[in-house]
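Now for one record.
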Amino acid sequence: MSEESKEYAYFLGCITPNRYPGIEVAAKKVFKEFGIDTKEMIGAACCPAPGVFGSFDIYTWLPVAARNLAIAEEMGLEIYVTCNGCYGSLQEADHLLKNKPKLKEKVNKILSKAGREYRGTSDVHHSIVLLHDLIGLDRLKEGVTNPLKGVNVAIHYGCHFLKPSEVRGHGSAETPYILEDIVKAIGAKSVDYKDKLMCCGAGGGVRTADTPTALEWTRQKLVSMIEADADCMINPCAFCHLQFDRGQYEINEAFGTSFSLPVLFVLQLVGLAMGFSVKELGLDQQTTTMPEKLLR
């Protein structure tokens, strides 16, 4: 199935290795099938979170992000991520440093104290963009052994993948298409629902600072997904994944509800369509469970 092999540095971030190792497993398994090898970024730190660090102090946020970019440059590889927050932080840092020479000089002066240098030689990619654009929909269809016919999927993009659209480069933030294309390619159906592009509720430190508000936003999205007859929801972000998976348990505890909508990272859903098992994709370790409709 694989064509010419290509290597990428995988920036894990914080939540994936600590809370959802199934996302890492799914990414590695799916990409390996299509000839993409994953290399670990030894010594990588937090991205750090763009909505928190970046908002308070650019000269704390930017050197940390640049240090991560420098590690990939030293490996001679470009980066892929499985978290929108990591994507937002690293890609925006890369964009700023490539376009602002004086800022790059100032950041490299800070990095020199740690024996690092940002050169601007490694681009940052989101895993779903690699799947959609590098692997391509035709090859993806060829890799499907278990087409998910009759499965209704509610798509959640998350904020940092879509905006700022001029930096991300994936078209209009109001009319995204990448996940819809992927869902269609594996035989499932994307369902429209109210407030589809709304935040998961957790970003910008809201989950930590004001948990009830964060959970209420998530609850509203879950209600809309269920009303649209979704069998499951997918996302491209480890932090959004946490908010929808663990968040359902928290919402049920807080509001006396009984939400149980299955939550999958997009590469986990793709993995099911490619014939990998729930256990192989780490889906057996989540709060939400998979319905029989997804286990054919």
